[in-house]
Amino acid sequence: MRQMTPEFEEKPIEQNQDDRLEMKSLSRKDRLKYKKEKMKATMEGMSRSEKFKYLLYFYKEALIIGTALLVVAIILGKSIYSATRPITISYVVVNCGNQMEFNMTPMRDYAKSINKYDGYQIKCDTNVAIVKDEYSQEYENNANSQVYINFLTMCTSDYYDVVFTNKEGAFYCASQNVFYPLDKYLDAETYEKIKDRIYVAKDMNGVEQQVAIDISDTEFAKSMNLGYKDALIGFAGDQEDNHERVQEFLNYLFP
Q1: Nearest-CA neighbor of 120 among 91, 162, 83?
Q2: Which residues make beta-bridge pairs with 91?
Q3: Residue 253 CB partners (closer than 8 Å, separation 6+)
Q4: Beta-ladder partners of 209
Q5: Which of 37, 93, 150, 189 could pair covalently with 164 via S-S, beta carbons 3.0-4.6 A apart?
Q6: What is the pLDDT of residues 179-230, one digit of tens each?
Q7: 211: closest CA among 187, 229, 236, 190?
Q8: Largest interatomic CA distance in the chain
């Protein structure tokens, strides 16, 4: 037969049947008073260590529940705080060469340079892969259809400010009207800065549009480790906040 450990040997004796019956007949206030007096009588003559063990056992359920609620409150509080912080920028990297090697530091440096890092959030996705031989197929025959559908849904709901992509991805985005034409975003000053970098592609109706900006030669694009040399950016959100964040980003890239 196994021997009991000292902790279990010293476990306080629980209330007997008479105690429980007597407790039921009392009001809540009297029950608390009764418990307090009973506890005081039980601990009389105990050492400090014995009192600690008794109190720990007596309140173990309240301690467990309280600790669990505290942990949940902390996690929930952090989640709410993270979700409600203002957005510095929301972007997606299409056809990222290697997600493990992708470097987010340039975007963090950008946020710090405009004083929108601490207390702000940067939203980033790097899992959208668009393969030429696949996106031309019907969705029901395409193993990656859910990825495309999710991507298109996020774009049409103005979730992303900036889309980083190679030319293959840009061609697809233009053909699906993911990108808004640049003239919706660029003022005259910004257009003058990037006019030699404009990428033109046909939209869903076969009409050529200026839809993206070539940033391949910028140190910013090179340091991101996108996985391709022909780096372009297009814009998929059409809310006021999207436009403001894009303009701020372009001012940083092309001062």
Answers
A1: 83
A2: 124, 162
A3: 215, 218, 220
A4: 201
A5: 93
A6: 989 988 888 898 899 899 999 998 888 888 999 999 999 999 999 999 898 9
A7: 236
A8: 92
Residues 6 or more apart in contact with residue 119 via CB below 8 angstroms:
85, 86
DSSP 71: H
Q: Which DSSP state fits 86?
A: P
Length of the chain: 255
Q: Which two tokens stand for residue 136?
A: 């031309």
Distances (CA, A) of 35 to 23, 26, 68, 231: 9, 11, 25, 72
CA–CA separation, 123 and 89 (whole Å): 6
Please give the full DSSP string across 206-226, using - where no structure is assigned. S-EEEEEEE-TTSHHHHHTT-
Token pair, residue 157, equals 């709901």
In angstroms, what CA-CA distances link 53 with 59, 65, 157, 199? 10, 18, 58, 73
Element of type H or E holding 126: strand 121-128
Spatial separation of the C-alpha atoms in residues 105 and 245, rounded to whole Å: 18
Count CB atoms within 10 A of the CB of residue 213: 26
User: H or E element: which one contains 52?
Assistant: helix 48-58
**CA distance linking residue 96 with residue 156, whole number of Å:** 21
DSSP helix/strand/coil, 25: coil
Q: What is the pTM of this model?
A: 0.66
Average pLDDT, the chain: 78
Sign, CA torsion 105/197/186/239:
negative
